[in-house]
Structure of Cation transporter:
Amino acid sequence: MGHGHGHGQPTSASERYLGRLAITFAVTTAFMVAELVVGFATSSLALISDGAHMVTDVVGVGLALAAILAARRARQHAGRTFGLYRAEVLAALANAVLLFGVAGYVIVEAVGRFQDPPAVPGLPVLLVAVGGLVANTCAFLLLREGAKESLNLRGAYLEVLADLVGSVGVLVSGLVTLLFGWRYADPVMGVAIGLFVLPRTWTLARRSLRILFQHAPERLDVEQLTTGLRSLAGVREVHDVHVWTLTSGMEVASAHVAVEPGGDQAGILAAAQRLLAEEYQIEHATLQLETERAADGCRELRW
């Protein structure tokens, strides 16, 4: 006896911030072009590194937008029973890979420049850094709230945060170069930006992989959840419990619940759904209520 519990077509956290993501994409694209053009024209590694981070912003935010639109469209397809919500998680993982690559490149390039740092004109770097700082601050504020709910948005948010720090670093580098002519300011700041990005990127990659491998949410104790279901009146045994995250803010569960002979199955089902929704915030759960004979058949499965 199988029962599903849900509330129609769900809306992911990312979709609620689609407009903000689109504005972020436009802003970061404009300043990415400006930073790269001036960076290569002035040989500023700090500016090139910040511009490269903005390239990952543009690609990352573009992936996030594409993932949201794909997930929304996939809901119309009967064969995709879970839609394409996992596309958002893949986008977050792709962002992490891009950030790893850019951070590694900047660190290697900066270390090489310590031997013979090129002369970098401070004023153009300073002016573009101010513009980049304004752009990244706007993008940061647009994505900050959504990053708390969506892993996809968090990937874009972390990239914007890295660029915000990078813009501050470029600003400091430009000021030091302009005022003191210290050539090491640019490569030092490049290394600092790269080191700032790496641990945050690792966290994003780890969270994305947990979802793709269908691990239970970190906040949730599966044994405690199973014990809670088993303690409900009329329940004899609970097995084959699975809890996983479809995408950020959308957690799913399934379980087989063996009931006592003659038990109120409708009441048991309602109590189990209420327990999952109220205590574990799992609104979509598929629970199979079984008799003793059916439960014995389940235990014979080898996987």
Q: What stands out?
A: The chain has two domains: 9-212, 222-299. Residues 4-11 have pLDDT under 50 and may be disordered. The beta strands are 2-5, 235-247, 250-259, 284-290.
